[in-house]
Records
---
Amino acid sequence: MNISQEIAKNLLEIKAVAIRSTDNLFTWASGIKSPIYCDNRLTMSYPHVRNMIANGFEKLIKEKYEDVEIIVGTATAGIPHAAWVSEKMNLPMAYVRSSAKGHGKGNQIEGIVKKGQKVVVIEDLLSTGGSSIKAVKALTEIGAEVLGVVAIFTYNFDQVDESFSKMKVSYDTLTGYNILLPIAIDMGYIKEEEKEMLTKWSKNPYIFTKE
């Protein structure tokens, strides 16, 4: 079992993945109605899981983004993982809010990110990619160079590829829906009747979303 499969298995074991029937769907920030929700915030409570994730990120970043000068997390779920990775790599860290703060200094970016500085953004998961793209835009607007975005999990939507392609920014994930689903079936985490629904939804994530 490789690290992608191990992380997917761990997410299932700590019950970070929840499944619902079509009459009680999750509603994402993007408006998508979904029968599945991956809550990576739960990984904070399991040292062996968060350490595996941090090690995975460190290896990935060193292999693909060796020129990185600062690790930037996305608020809120990307912040702890950015902290652990920046500590491992002995790099400075900052984080990006979804929008500028409405009080105090009104910052959207917290911490020091300098113009021209090479950044890797850490996100907890990629669904449509919208929150990650907002973070990338905020960083590029102050003159930072975003080398790429790395996330724990992706739902493997084509929309993510399209969004990042438009921004001309690369992205990588440690694991994803296509890896997790067969493991969940083998573990008995997903019932046979749920398998068909989840497979159908993955091919068309808007199938349950009313216009």
Note: The radius of gyration is 17 Å.
---
Amino acid sequence: MPNLTLAELTDEIEANVRIALAEDIGSGDITAQLIPAERMARATVITRESAVICGTAWVDAVFRQLDSRVVVSWQVADGDKVQANQTLFTLEGPARALLSGERTALNFLQTLSGVATRCRHYADLVEGTGVKLLDTRKTLPGLRQAQKYAVTCGGCHNHRIGLYDAFLIKENHIAACGSIAAAVQAAHQIAPGKPVEVEVESLKELQQALEAGADIIMLDELSQDEMRQAVAITEGRARLEASGGINESTLRAIAETGVDYVSIGALTKDLRAVDLSMRLSL
């Protein structure tokens, strides 16, 4: 499944920002009204810690929607590694707009940079193995596409975006359909050409998924020895994805079993926002 690109997210970004500004500003920023409307200002945004940057387009959209006179000048780009106290961007324009947009802009930037930073850390752990690390649907409601874009900025990859762009046949789907073969056959009839992935919990189920013609087979909490056996059994007839109970201490060894993918919910679920700061000068 292809990674999301920024060009695909134009409408999404504008919608994300509209909702966030409405949530924060509501009927109007009453504190900003303390400042004369004609007063102009300059601001500098820095990071207080090392990070991988993501979210520049969301910041641009915040100030574009607030006041077209605000000029955003970036010194970094999405995917760049930065160090503590490094300047990320500067702002020039009406002081009211700079202050009203500060929190919303930094919320997007610190959150998406947090995802990108975590992903870069995990990607570094498997460097040289050839495995691709995949995200999951464990994302913040309303920010899935933003987070999945951030995953790519950190050097990892996108799994399916939602329930509409690929099949992922799990235990309950199999039970409801009657068998792995019946579920895969139905998937091919419902949406020919869509990727069909089957989750298996044993090597016996792996064989059934291969015989059914699954494109991708998810090895759910199989042991590392079972994963190596699965690679040998599959012989390239399907792509293999390891999933379930994977952490930093086991990731490298799992990647070295020969599977094609490893999916990790923590890439988007367990994020920690990057510490950023804005300094205003008149």
Note: The chain has ten helices and twelve strands.
---
Amino acid sequence: MTDDATRPRATLAAVAERAGVSRSTASLAFSGAGPVAAETREKVLAAAEALGYGGPDPVARSLRSGRTGIVGVVIEDRLREAFRDPMNIPMLDGLADELGAAGFSILLLTDPAGPDANAASPIDTAPMDAVVLVGCSTRLDASVALLRQRRIPIVAIEAAPMEGVLDIALDNRRASALGAAHLHELGHRDVAVVTLPLGADHAAGPLRDDWEERATSFPAAERLRGVLDVYTRLRGWMAPASSTASGYTAGLAILADPERRPTAVIAQSDLLALGVIRAAEELGVSVPEELSVLGFDGIRTEAYGGVELTTLVQPALEKGRAAGRGVLRLLDGEEPQPTLLRCTLRSGATSGPAVHR
């Protein structure tokens, strides 16, 4: 007896013959692309099961259509780091919602402009119909040029505007200014910032005066510019990752000296904010009585003690959906307009009036 591993692959033509229908009818029964009577569809599926036919050959279908049915999602961070960011999960969910409904699959790739810049890039050979760039560096020129050579439509999420790239933007600068203004209205004049990774090397340490020249992370730089729209100077700490551990380390560094302790900390993610709060608790600094802490993202905090953060809530799910819709419109030959998504300030239990020493 021939086992499944050695049995020749069943064909659609064989299924159609067994079911007593035309090949085109059998194809429609599988694809759902046209009207097929329920009884006919059941006959085709029964014939396919009997012959061990799992559906049309994806390679042959790709050759016929000229498309792979794949959208590449290029993530700048190492994947293990990317999936620790709670904002990436709903963003990818939104992207998958839109693309999956249209029959497309997602292929996750890493960006050569990111931490593994010396590694070989898969974007020059990966089979895909379009690309979504996530976590965008300001050093994407080479990657974008390569994708353009392949004539692949490009969508970028939170990137610096680039010619020929559909922009799905978040109002990072305006949102950060909104949060900074909230603290300013509460009387805070001495404010420190804990940033997301600013450079490709993910260096940690005090925020340098030349941060703008060195920054390669567009969202992190825009959020710092938003703070400068309210406050005339910046001081703070560059975190190597968006994590509570990085926020904790930053918090210890910023709050250790009582003589230089700020009255508020603006963290560029909620995870960083939660880490700062943990450091404050360890140092005996009460929040918000002695220190206000502002986050960014709007994550659920049940797993972190249920802290009711004052934060800037971003529409992560809609960000992914907007990117997915943009991909589909580009593949249809349209020229969609850029999308700008807004954040909202959610006042919680971690901000209060400044107590001046």
Note: Confidence is low (pLDDT under 50) at residues 1-6.
